Amino acid sequence: MQLNQTTMNVLKNFSTINDNLVVSAGNVVKSMGESRNIMAKATLDQEFPSGFGIYDLGEFLNVVSLVDSPTLGFTEDFATISDGSGRSRVKYFFSDPDILTSPTSDVKVSDCEVSFTLNNDTLNQLKRAGAALGHNSLSIRPDGKSLKLSIFAEDNPTGNTYDTVIAGTFPEGAQFDLILNIQHLKMIAGDYEVEVSSKGVAHLTHDAECKMEYWIALEKSSKWEG
Known about the structure:
By secondary structure, this protein is mostly beta strands. It has 3 helices and 16 strands.
């Protein structure tokens, strides 16, 4: 098996969420943060022939990059990573999936009251604003018939803020302040359809090279009055 560029990009993205990775046979790969506040799912355009566990995904990707045109062969206990000529080979041993942090099922999200499109430019601007201001909190609030996304410091009500207004849908008359930690927005680059539930989770989906889904827990300070 040769990992195509889309699969490599997904695995690199997942390594920012958790070094642990448990792969099942097939084309669906999932990851979950150690604190279980972010989960990601990718539906790839290629399939893994068997399941395996990796303790350090970053290390695994570095090992794959050691050889030119890597081809992976899978056994129950390890992967053999060979170069295009067949002269160079790496034996990489798997980890027991039972000791790794991994999701066992998808997050069930229903009755999402707020929805909007978060394009890649806006996402990058929010991240840059957070870095410039030194703030981690992203607020989603109504602004007339639009939504206001704000970068702010939860522990400093008089601190500097960054605001941007975007189109969105939500129940008429609803008052809410839904808060995400911007450091949890570890999505692969792209435009996302976002659905947010007052029950405490945001669901982000992206269809480009492959289908990507992320579930991110809202901060406990979030408020909703529907």
